[in-house]
Automatic annotation (TrEMBL):
Keywords: Sigma factor, Transcription, Transcription regulation. InterPro entries: RNA_pol_sigma-70-like, RNA_pol_sigma-70_dom, RNA_pol_sigma70_bacteroid, RNA_pol_sigma70_r2, RNA_pol_sigma70_r4_t2, RNA_pol_sigma_r2, RNA_pol_sigma_r3/r4-like, WH-like_DNA-bd_sf. PANTHER family: RNA POLYMERASE ECF-TYPE SIGMA FACTO, RNA POLYMERASE SIGMA-70 FACTOR ECF SUBFAMILY. The keyword Transcription regulation applies. This is RNA polymerase sigma-70 factor, ECF subfamily. Residues 126-175 form the RNA polymerase sigma factor 70 region 4 type domain. Belongs to the sigma-70 factor family. ECF subfamily. Residues 24-88 form the RNA polymerase sigma-70 region domain. GO terms for molecular function: DNA binding; sigma factor activity. Pfam families: Sigma70_r2 (PF04542), Sigma70_r4_2 (PF08281). The keyword Chloroplast does not apply.
Length: 195
């Protein structure tokens, strides 16, 4: 038996709450199922509820169940479209805001970066002091790797040690140098690149 009888539609047209509740209980699950094909489930529920609120407030005059179905599905479809457009705009705005923040950080960092001769002299002095404080074997391995541009395998062969030992000593030296040179790191990327 068809639940949407002419009598029910008549009561719905007269804005009877009981008729609305019957229509709501009948179509709500179907419309949520329809909407969640396009939007997340929690959004689908809200969009369907919005469609029913609009239906109740606008109170269109209906002559048959097909008009009702068409009205409800079209309303939910339009709500989904608006939601998806809003999400697209929001995502674009979030990406632009993140890019703007990154640009502001880079701008600030570049303004504060000292590229004067004095700065490079200070860097060299810090490197010399830090290298002098490294354990002799660590200093030797790091010097061969970073200042004489030897590959880890070449350093290992020259010093008769494993490549893993070379990598460990380079990591140790890099940690110490990164701490000592923290204020100048953007200028020193060449030093910290792996071979």
């Amino acid at each position: 038996m068809d639940v949407l009888t002419n009598e029910l539609l008549e009561l719905l047209n007269k804005k009877q709450e009981a008729a609305f509740e019957v229509v709501f209980s009948l179509y709500y699950p179907r419309l949520v199922y329809f909407a969640k094909e396009y939007v997340p489930h929690e959004d689908a529920e809200g969009l369907v509820q919005d469609a029913f609120i609009a239906f109740w407030e606008k109170h269109p005059s209906l002559t048959n169940k097909f008009q009702l179905q068409s009205y409800l599905y079209t309303s939910v479809k339009n709500n989904c479209l608006m939601h998806l457009r809003h999400q697209k705009v929001k995502k674009r705005y979030d990406e632009m805001a993140a890019l703007e923040m990154q640009n502001l950080l880079h701008l600030s960092a570049l303004k504060q970066l000292d590229t004067s001769i004095v700065s490079f002299q200070e860097i060299e002095s810090i490197i010399e002091r830090t290298m002098a404080d490294l354990p002799p074997r660590c200093r030797e391995i790091f010097t061969l790797s970073r200042f004489e541009n030897k590959k880890n395998q070449e350093v290992a062969k020259a010093l008769n040690i494993s490549v893993k030992a070379v990598e460990a000593q380079i990591s140790k030296a890099l940690k110490v140098l990164k701490i000592a040179l923290k204020d100048f790191l953007p200028l020193l990327t060449y030093l910290f690149l792996n071979n």
